[in-house]
Each structure stands twice: as C-alpha cells, then as structure tokens.
Amino acid sequence: MPDAVVLLSGGLDSYTAAAMVAAEGYALNALTIRYGQVHGREVQAARAVARALGVRRCTELELDLRGVAASALTGASAVPKDRPIDASIPSTYVPARNTIFLSLALAWAETLGASDLVIGVNALDYSGYPDCRPEYIAAFERMAALATKAGVEGGRLRIHTPLVQLSKADIIRRGLALGLDYGLTHSCYDPRPDGRACGHCDSCVLRAKGFAEAGALDPALR
Predict the structure, then answer these.
(1) Could you report the per-residue pLDDT of 99-116, keeping only the tens digit for each?
(2) Number of folded domains that form the chain
(3) CB-based contact 31:4 (threshold 8 Å)
(4) 8 Å CB contact between 111 and 11
(5) pLDDT tens per residue across span 143-160
(6) Phi, psi for 52 (deg, rounded to 5)
(7) Are 25 and 50 a contacting pair, CB within 8 Å?
(8) How far is it between the farthest Cα atoms of the chain?
(9) DSSP character for 85?
C-alpha cells in the first residue's frame, strides 16, 4: 500500500479528500500545522479526523506565521461576517499558506519515500483564494520535480486534489457515501467561546449551503 501525505486541517474538505484517496488504496500520513491561527479548534478536529481515518502516521508542526503572513485568520483583522461571497480575495486569505504547507508536506513525503500528496483545495465553492486553483497545483508539481532529490533522479510527485472541481454539495455527497462523520469536523473561521460555529463567516456560509444543496443535515450543528 503506497504512502500519501495529506494536509489535514480538521475541516470538511481535507477530511473528504483524505478519505477519497484512502479509498483508492493509499496509506495516509497526516500533517497538521499550527500556523498561528487565532483558535485551536480546528487542530482538535484534525486529531479526531485522523483517528477516524486510521492514518499510518500523524505529525503536528508548530509554524507561527503571524509575523510574516497578515490575515484575519492570524489575528491581523476581524473575520468578515455575512459578506457577499464573490471572486475577490478576502481578508481570510493567508499569504502563501498553501505554498508553505505543500513544501512541508513535500519534505515529509521525500523523507518517507512517498510520491503522493493530498490537499483538499476546491476551485468552485471557495472564498477566492489564489492558491486553490488547478493551475497553481500544476505549477507546484513542476517546481517539485526541479527542487527535490526524488524529482532530479526521475521520480514524479503527484498532488491529489480530488475536490478541485466539485461543488460543496458534491463534496458532502461523496463523503456521506464513504460513511464519513462530519460531526468530527470544524470549518468555522471564528468559533464562539464554546467552540461552536459562528454561522456567519464565509466558511460557515459555504458549509451550510453545501449541506442544504446536498439535502443533508450537518451533524456538527446537532
């Protein structure tokens, strides 16, 4: 069973992407990063999701980006609520986050002798982040072929993005078909003091829309 390194945030998308790749026969190695986000709720969810997925290895890294990557998610400003979601890049964009995260996942993959990375990016129902687009992923794969020992020696890194062209509703349908427990996940950018979702940030709005369109109830709200 080949190894794959999955960037696991504890959110709905990364959980579903990991499960889809596991269903293809890959052994998962979960990498969760504490990057200076303003709350730790998603890291707790990532641990629960990793247990549910039965990952082969699980690593948490501390990498505080607050000094170099200003974002509402790192405390530079308030998380926007109830805004019209369009193609503009919102204040919740964390500069270079996916580039940094994929670079760390790439390093671990080389160490493990793995050729596959997994990331739950989505180019349809998303908040306008430039590092969620297919052309970005393709460019990173080309860079990895040039920048790694494995690439120079003829190996080929593949970045799995099974959600990239799916709507949020379709992502949820795929996950439910795989038997995933979305009650384990956390998507909110600005949870309440008790850890419950705010219901008003972009992530909450997109999640609610997805469950409604999928004709399913969100177990995280029960």
Answers:
(1) 999 999 999 999 999 999
(2) 1
(3) no
(4) no
(5) 999 999 999 999 889 999
(6) -65, -35
(7) no
(8) 51
(9) P
Tokens of 125: 């129902």
Tell me the C-alpha to C-alpha distance, in Å, between residue 17 and each of 4, 110, 151: 12, 21, 24
Sheet holding 3-7, edge to edge: 57-62, 27-34, 3-7, 116-118, 158-160
Buried b (16+ CB within 10 A) or exposed e, 57-95: ebbeeeeebbeebbbbbbeeeebbeeeebeeeebbbbbe
Q: Are 92 and 72 in contact (CB under 8 A)?
A: yes
Residue 108's H or E segment, with its range, is helix 97-112
Q: Kindly report each contact of residues 212-221 with a partner whose C-beta sits within 8 Å and lies 24 or more positions away, as own/partner.
A: 212/169, 213/167, 213/168, 213/169, 214/169, 214/170, 214/172, 214/173, 214/176, 216/172, 216/173, 216/176, 218/182, 219/181, 219/182, 219/183, 220/182, 220/183, 220/185, 220/186, 220/187, 221/197
Residue-wise pLDDT tens digits, 22-31: 999 999 999 9
Nearest Cα residue to 122 out of 94, 90, 92, 98: 98
Q: How far apart are CA 73 and CA 53, in angstroms?
A: 26
Q: Could you tell me the CATH number of the domain that includes residue 58?
A: 3.40.50.620
| Cα–Cα distance for residue pair 68/66, rounded to 1 Å | 6
The pTM assigned to this predicted structure is 0.95
Domain with 16 in it = 3-221
